[in-house]
């Protein structure tokens, strides 16, 4: 097996990085929720002229809630990565140790009894690798779902600008809401994209490892 310590370190660093990025996403989602409360107040004051803006605030609130829920789920998965990385490292280290003993003591009596043990460890390592990759791919799919949610938000930010233009007295205030929505969704998109790249790199790294 290739140097699993390097793989373990990479996974642990990635898990920490993804967690930090998701914490940042969560803070942005909280700001979006606060912004929605302000937008609702403004649209209520604007009355009939901002009637079309009110469903938009409901949508933004829903997006912020969905993002926050996704962060909780993905963060939980990222924390599991750390534990899996340690287990993955230990199983690979044990397999490497047994193979070294088999090689160094090839002329020893009863050394052949190690072969079934090594075969079993190799099979277990393969199963663990497959399980590990499946969990990583699950996190990537959840990130993809979050990206889709954010992508639709960019469309809403465009619509919100149109609706803001229809409210003369409160136009500037509502345009600020639209600007904040666009800025927030772009920041979330960038963070989610970084998480996606990092996890994809780890998947490729783990799949390259020979545990047979």
List keywords for this structure.
212 residues; mainly alpha; 0% strand; rod-shaped; disordered N terminus
The portion of residues forming beta strands comes to under 5%
Radius of gyration: 25 Å
Sheet with most strands: none
What is the H/E order?
Answer: HHHH
Account of the protein in words:
This protein has 212 residues and is mainly alpha-helical. The protein has one domain. The protein has helices at 4-46, 54-104, 114-165, 171-208. The chain is rod-shaped and about 90 Å long.
Helices and strands in order:
Blueprint: H1 4-46, H2 54-104, H3 114-165, H4 171-208
Helix pairs in contact: 1-2, 1-4, 2-3, 3-4
Summary?
It contains 4 helices and no strands. By secondary structure, it is mainly alpha-helical. It starts with a helix and ends with a helix.
